[in-house]
Design goal:
Length: about 240
């Protein structure tokens, strides 16, 4: 059954492999194959989101952006827990979670969200996010198709990345993507300032952005331009003199 689903999805995608021009189509097929409203694919490394490869619409784009800025949401949990994360009613969840993410996502039009990890063997790559504009559980068939689609997406990412120079992201994956390079640069600078890990530095950046009602990328740009620094001794966030 899984093999049949894979063939059907690849046929829907219209390819036997994947190229950079098809990353957008890959996200569209994720939504079409699962009967959901929209989809996004997020890459992660360690416990740090790296950014989205593609999204299908403005709502899925916002979902990916919120998860990146806040460090919470279905993709983050799916990747970290290595299992599907299903929220059939984001506005009225049985168990409240993602306090910063849920409100803006619902306001944008996402009533149900589902995260599926992208994994090939032992290699974890990120997560596939699906959303629906109406609340409700995925059917058994939708869930099975989502698992296959997550596998197809993971294989596609590996195929595209295979020809990239060591230490660099494939150009096909970068095309149309949002990888927030300024945030990664800022996280490295804050890690040095605080003498901590890049992951913990990113947590501090997110906390500062959230506490000051600013976008993460804007705060990162201030760090990189040395308008803002983080004090290792006091823990305070100090504007540059």
């Amino acid at each position: 059954m899984a093999g049949e689903r894979r063939l059907r999805i690849l046929d829907l995608l219209g390819i036997g492999g994947t190229s950079g021009s098809e990353t957008k189509r890959l996200c569209e097929v994720c939504a079409e194959a699962t009967g959901t409203t929209g989809a996004g694919i997020m890459l992660m490394a360690g416990d740090v989101p790296r950014g989205s490869v593609c999204t299908t619409d403005d709502v899925s784009d916002l979902i990916e952006q919120l998860q990146y800025d806040l460090g919470e949401g279905p993709c983050v949990d799916a990747y970290q827990d290595d299992r599907p994360v299903l929220e059939p009613d984001l506005a009225r969840p049985r168990t409240p979670r993602w306090p910063a993410f849920s409100g803006p996502a619902v306001e944008a039009g996402a009533r149900a969200v589902f995260g599926f990890p992208l994994q090939v063997g032992a290699a974890r790559l990120g997560a596939l996010n699906l959303y629906c504009e109406r609340p409700g559980e995925l059917t058994d068939d939708q869930h099975a198709d989502a698992l296959v689609m997550a596998d197809v997406a993971a294989q596609a990412v590996l195929v595209l990345q295979a020809g990239a120079p060591a230490g660099r992201l494939a150009g096909e994956l970068e095309a149309g993507s949002d990888f927030h390079y300024v945030v990664h640069q800022a996280a490295g600078m804050v890690a040095a300032q605080l003498e901590t890990s890049v992951g913990q530095a990113l947590v501090r950046l997110r906390a500062y952005a959230f506490g000051n009602d600013r976008k993460l990328a804007e705060v990162a740009a201030d760090v990189v331009s040395r308008k803002l620094r983080f004090d290792a001794d006091s823990g305070e966030k100090d504007p540059r003199p």
